[in-house]
Amino acid sequence: MKKNVYTKYVDAKCLARVWKAMLSQGDLFSVWNDERDERALPPVEQELWEKLARSAFRRKFHLNKDDLSYLEDKTLPVVLEHGAEFITRRLAPAHPARDGKQTPWKGHPVFVAQHATATCCRSCLEKWHHFSKGTQLTVWQQRYVLAVIAAWLERELIRDEPKDA
User: Fold this and answer.
1) Buried b vs exposed e over 79-95: b needs ≥16 C-beta within 10 Å?
2) Residue 118 in contact with residue 152, Cβ under 8 Å?
3) CA angle (71 as vertex; 114, 144 as ends), nearest 5
4) Which of 24, 107, 44, 119 lies closest to 71 in space, CA to CA?
5) Would you call 1 helix, strand, or coil by DSSP?
6) Nearest CA among 49, 51, 50, 20 for reference residue 37
7) Sign of the C-alpha dihedral, residues 157, 29, 14, 22?
8) Helix extents (H) in 8-121
9) Is 53 within 8 Å of 87 (Cβ atoms)?
10) For residues 103 and 90, what is the distance between their CA atoms, to the nearest angstrom?
């Protein structure tokens, strides 16, 4: 398996800076046209990872070989572009179609990340991230969800790296 290039971008603050630099190469989020914030992803607090780690259900999710291969082949920025589209279509509306069932269990690295991070439906977003059901997600909230997914995917890339003996 090829060595991934994202290992030096582990913490959320660094991820936000890297994401900002990647965005300068092209507009990945034309649907999020908010001039006030420089399109940087918000930081993800360590407390969230600690809470998720205490959940036996959330802990069991990991990318399989096919998902890892897809992520490495397409690269993290492209996969996150897909994630941004999924968030906009499936989570952001105040009353998403099939809420609670809109995120498949497998088939894309973002889907697995959503279940692992409790960003898969509005009920999980309310319980784990305190985003009220029944109101459309703000641009900041959508970016936060993407930041959580991005950080989890990076952790999975690092987790999959061969350990030096």
Assistant:
1) bbbebbebbbebbbeee
2) no
3) 35
4) 107
5) coil
6) 20
7) positive
8) 12-23, 46-53, 56-59, 65-74, 76-86, 109-116
9) no
10) 8
For tokens 């641009």, the residue is: 139
Q: Which two tokens stand for residue 160?
A: 């999959």
Q: Does residue 147 sit in helix, strand or coil?
A: helix
Question: What residues have CB less than 8 Å from 81, skipping those under 6 apart?
Answer: 28, 29
pLDDT by residue, tens only, the chain of 165 residues: 344 343 333 444 444 444 444 444 344 444 444 444 445 788 899 999 999 999 999 999 999 999 999 999 999 999 999 999 999 999 999 999 888 888 889 989 999 999 999 999 999 999 999 999 999 999 999 999 999 999 999 999 988 665 554
Task: Specify whether the CB–CB gap between 61 and 153 falls below 8 A.
Answer: no
Tokens of 121: 């439906």
